[in-house]
Amino acid sequence: MRRRIILVLILMSLCVTGITVLQLYWNYQNYKSTLRKFNTDINNALDIALNKEIDLRQEKIISKFKTWMADTTLVQITCENNNRDSNTVFHVNDKFPYSPKEKGFALGFAAFKEKLKQITPSAKSYFIEHFANSVLKRDLKKGFVYFYTQKLGDSLSKIYNAARLDTSVLIPLYKQELASKEIYAPFKLFLGLPSKTQMFVTLTMSSALKRPYEKQYVYAAFQNPNLYFFKAMKWLITTSCLLIFITLFCFGYTLRTLFSQQKLAQLKDEFINNMTHELNTPLSSIKITAESLGKFDHDAQTTKEYLNIILYQTEKLSSMANHILQLNRPTGLYKNTEDIELNALIKRAISDLLPKSKDKNARIYFQASKNPIIISGESQALVNVLINLIDNALKYNKADPKLDIRIHNDTKYSEISIADNGIGIPPEYRDKIFEKFFRVPTGNIHDVKGYGLGLFYVKEVILKHKGTIKVSSNQPRGTVFKIKIPLA
Ligand code: ADP
Q1: Parallel, antiparallel, or unpaired: how do β-strands 363-367 and 402-409 relate?
Q2: Pocket mutation for ligand 1, best pick of 392, 438, 448, 481 (most atoms within 8 Å of C-beta)
Q3: Structural domain boundaries of the chain?
Q4: What confidence tens digit (pLDDT) does each residue in 335-381 have?
Q5: What would be the CATH architecture of the domain defined by 228-326?
Q6: Pocket of ligand 1 (CB under 6 A)
Q7: CATH code, residues 329-486
Q8: What count of other Cβ atoms lies within 10 Å of the Cβ of residue 93?
């Protein structure tokens, strides 16, 4: 049995350790993948936000360009249509070129179907819109500044070079992108290349309009991402901590049950040993007496004496069986409640034990109260309680027993104390003595007979009467039991 329990314990410990290690490993892997995802997300988000910011900067340049194109003091837009089958061609020239030789540029749109020899306001705005939104936009996206005309080119490159990254625009855009990925960790944007930092940084990206030809770097740094991860993984961590806790709790609980079952089995074994021993003495006496009655012829007087012995031993057996049955089932003893006078009840218990106390040369002092004390309860059960306690006080005593029984009253309760000068109960067993079958260990020899059921019975009956029972040591030696029962 012991070996099997040890084996189960080893297996259970392995299991619990395995589950805990697996949970920790799983959480660590999760942490690593969250870290990887976080890294990818913050880089993607910065890339998208930066592209949006660059688009905005380019949009500003495009709209500026449109105003220049529309300004007739700067640019002259004309058109011609030489051939019936060809498209209208638009000519764009500086109004005041640096030199008369300078030529602007000419362009036609396949989608523009009108055949015009002279520019009209609607054709002009069509041309400006389409030129800026397709040609200029495409060129800017490539990172080029074309000198469509010399003066337009000059102005364009001036604002193009001045259009640097605006972090006040990028920050909200980045925040928005991060939020779409459910990242709310605080960050800072830095221009240039990252120096050695404790912070968690993104890739360095170019924010220049002329990228990839020009490099103006930007990167984002996040402080203490672990806190962020902890927040992101809080439910996972809580759940797995809870699982570990439940597993450990179940493990502990099972261990406790296992040990208490083993203890109970041991106590039951002891109980059966005691019982068998107790049964054997009257049974052998009956057997010997019956055998001698059968073998020899006896006169009527001797036969009667022998039969009396058999009868006496049988009654002893039957009262023993009843006693154990009763002790084992204290519940159901609170059926017939009545008003009970406590002083009388104590006197009854003492007189029931008179033969035993005389045998043991015991002195029992009882200080009855002046006034009667009435409680409500089951008198037989309460007498049994007192008999058990007084009997124990006589039993567990090596010298001449001296018992002191007192009764006190307050407004609500009555307290009976039974003090003895016996062997005492070590403090570590004082809670256990009320458990079923428990007997204070005395090595292998139990010179005092008992089944470990008496105090279990006592406690159950007292609880049924809504009372309490306490045990403490008596001075200079012995034990004191104190019972409190509510007054009627
Ligand atoms: P039993 O007396 O049949 O063994 P009980 O339930 O009445 O069972 O008592 C449980 C144990 O408590 C006893 O075995 C004994 O070790 C201890 N005990 C009870 N009363 C006393 C007492 N007055 N003095 C010393 N030990 C006691």
Answers
A1: parallel
A2: 392
A3: 1-162, 228-326, 329-486
A4: 678 999 999 999 999 999 999 999 999 999 998 988 899 999 988 88
A5: Orthogonal Bundle (1.10)
A6: 388, 392-393, 396, 420, 422-425, 433, 438-440, 450-456, 479
A7: 3.30.565.10
A8: 19
